[in-house]
Design goal:
This protein is mostly helical. It has one domain. It is built from six helices and no strands. Helix 1 packs antiparallel against helix 5, helix 2 packs parallel to helix 5 and helix 4 packs antiparallel against helix 5. It starts with a helix and ends with a helix.
């Protein structure tokens, strides 16, 4: 179990670092575009580039957010449940999340493959859509993997619980 956890942490850290670079580049493009607008020559592909980078900025750190539990969690009622009930609700929640994000990853990857096959390009930059779409699909797959590791952790009793 420890090696799976380390693998998810390593992959999530890499994805988050790339997402951070994407955020910096996106911000730089927006700033350059605003500066150039002062001189009447805006950066024409700024909208497309910021859109592409926005998708990667949001999607790539999904696994990291799951590992650090930095998402919204509403446990107003769950805090009063007995441990067994909390464990069951965690299993159900994680199981449904694995299914949801597994399906999302699969469908987004199918869409990316379709974009690759058709050779669809953006209007302004003539850049292909599919690499960014695949990045979102892989990010959802990593989130699915992180959720699955969390699910296995809930299913596997800890040493102190066995005694």
């Amino acid at each position: 179990m420890g090696s799976l956890k380390r693998l998810t942490e390593a992959l999530s850290n890499i994805f988050t670092a790339v997402g951070g670079v994407s955020l910096v580049v996106m911000t730089a493009i927006a700033c350059v575009n605003m500066f150039l607008r002062l001189f009447g020559t805006p950066l024409s592909p700024a909208y497309e580039l910021v859109s592409y980078l926005g998708a990667t900025t949001v999607a790539l750190p999904l696994g990291y957010a799951q590992l650090k539990k930095s998402h919204i969690s509403v446990d107003i009622l769950a805090a009063y449940f007995p441990n067994n009930v909390r464990r069951i609700t965690s299993l159900i929640s994680l199981g449904l999340s694995v299914i949801l994000f597994g399906l999302a990853s699969w469908k987004v990857a199918q869409h990316a493959t379709n974009l690759l096959r058709t050779g669809e390009l953006s209007e302004t930059t003539r850049m292909p859509f599919y690499p960014f779409t695949y990045a979102v699909a892989v990010s959802c797959a990593l989130l699915t993997f992180c959720l699955l590791v969390d699910l296995l952790a809930v299913l596997t009793p800890r040493q102190e619980e066995r005694k």
